[in-house]
Amino acid sequence: MSLLSGLGEIPAMSPPSGVAPNFVNPENKSLIGVVLGGVMASLMALMIINRAFVKWRVIKKWTKDDLTCVSAFLLGLAYYTVIVIAMQSGNVGVHQYDLKLAHTLDHSYLLACYLSSIFAPMTMIFEKITFLLFYRQLFRPLRWLRIAAFLGVIVTILAYMSFMTVVLVYTTPSKGETFATHYQTLTFEKAIPVGIASSAFGVVIDLYIISLPVMGIHRLKLSPRQRVEVTGLFLTGTL
To answer: How far is 236 from 210, CA to CA, in rounded Å?
Structure first.
């Protein structure tokens, strides 16, 4: 308790030059995150329903990417729920320099952050391999692309599972520790570069996922105009 009380007037992050920390009534934009997240979750739900209807009534065939797509949606909802819980602590949506350092040691906030380190990479895995599994069906005549997509699936799973495991090792409190006490150890800080590496890998694998269909399209027997149109459709993924 003495340690926490000593952190009562220390900002969680140094403010920019000329800016004074506002602990009394800080600007909070968490509502924006909740609303936008809710809108995106609703749009995803509509797309999942549309996909299920088409597969059931039109194509009348279910494939592996349907399972991974639904899994990604459910994990995404779980991740969104965790973030909303973190927002209830008042530590999300506020500039770090407007927060007292002691507030960032709130148990519910730290627990939500811990759970997000599980749901986030799991969501990423199922999101990305859904595209890769779909490519294996769409470009079935192109053996090299099917192999490239399969390798992408393996690398994606292994990479994100490795990142998640290392982060959990560093962020899980030892016996007798709480999240608050463990948060202040050097062991916890080791998880930061792992998170950065995970983000960097995410960018690389996204570029890989986008490039595969673009290269595949140019190997198909399509007119120049059709190639441009189909390529443009896939490149909307960059948005």
So the answer is: 9
The model scores a pTM over 0.85? no
pLDDT attached to residue 238: 61
Contact in structure between 83 and 92 (CB atoms under 8 Å) = yes
- Cβ-based neighbours of 119, under 8 Å, separated by 6 or more: 75, 78, 79, 82
Q: Answer yes or no: are the C-beta atoms of 17 and 100 closer than 8 Å.
A: no
Q: Name the amino acid, one letter, at 19.
A: V
d(CA 167, CA 59): 41
Over the stretch 119-167, which tens digit does the pLDDT of each residue have? 999 999 999 999 999 999 988 888 999 999 999 999 999 999 999 999 9
Cβ atoms 4, 102 nearer than 8 A? yes
One-letter amino acid at 104 equals T
What is the torsional sign of CA 100, 106, 109, 110?
A: positive
